[in-house]
Amino acid sequence: MKIRTTIPALLFSGVLFLGACSQPAEVDYQAEIEAGNAQFETYYNAGDAAGLDTLYTADAILLPPGGQAVSGAEARVAFWQGVMASGLASIDLIEDEVFGMGDTAIDRGQLIGYDADGNEIAIGKYLVVWKNEGGTWKLHRDIWNLDS
Questions:
Q1: Topology annotation, domain 26-146
Q2: Which end of the chain is more exposed for a tag (fewer CB within 10 A), N or C?
Q3: What is the DSSP letter of 51?
Q4: What is the pTM of this model?
């Protein structure tokens, strides 16, 4: 009778031990998202809308201020080309808060936009939902507003 209770207890303990050993490594969400934002700035500041779109998930949605939702790679590229052509030559993204769980992270921050002469022409706030796809963090939902 004692064996009947001991074996299940040992099996259960083994499963718990193996489960604890296979836990994913701790994610440094702040560093991952800062790196993603740095890449976003690099593509944007180089005027590379197609490169910028590689940072988005396939089903990403842009939610620009005062406009309709933008989805699909072709529409996102066209959107960013239009923004770049409007005179917003470069941007800075400043993370105020980053937190995550598993393959999802939330990034809240500020954005500053500049014209070709380096004059500040736009200030705003943003909120981005990031998803980890195959080890790469990508923008999944991107919403922002402008204060000026």
A1: Nuclear Transport Factor 2; Chain: A, (3.10.450)
A2: N
A3: H
A4: 0.81
Rounded distance, CA 103 to CA 101, Å? 6
Q: What residue segments make up the domains of the chain, in order of their start?
A: 26-146
Instruction: Give the strand pairing for 120-133 and 104-114.
Output: antiparallel
Decide: helix, strand or coil at residue 28: coil
* 30-53 per-position pLDDT tens digit: 999 999 999 999 999 999 999 999
Query: pLDDT at residue 108 above 80?
Result: yes
